[in-house]
């Protein structure tokens, strides 16, 4: 093995380690929505090993995901090579993972932002898409608390106005 081959192998190894340990869910799907990559974040939060999900459809693994809706979101990613986004404000989660954070333990599930990105092959065709799942629970909980405080403050101001009259 040449020095450059060894360096390439070492680089591949640390990139795979990073993929597995990053605090973001990474899933790669083929055109039939079969799982090809399932990183450590997804394993940890779903309780499913990569070997258990590989080559199974996303919809058979997670029947709560509305297939028609998800396919409408993913179709332009495959066809137009463009990204698509799903935010927790539009839909709180794609994967109903329990909330594991002790600070924001008041939320029953993990709020998520999702990015779908095309993975263009060497031939220029999009045969796979990646999903990146971001845990937005802290932000969602903070926004909900802020909104609750704003409502309470508004109600208090209205109560004071009525009392003054």
From TrEMBL:
Pfam families xref list: PAS
Organism field: Alteromonas salexigens
Gene3D superfamilies, per database record: PAS domain (3.30.450.20)
Protein name, per record: PAS domain-containing protein
Source taxon at top rank: Bacteria
Lineage: Bacteria, Pseudomonadati, Pseudomonadota, Gammaproteobacteria, Alteromonadales
Sequence ranges assigned to domain PAS fold in this UniProt record: 18-68
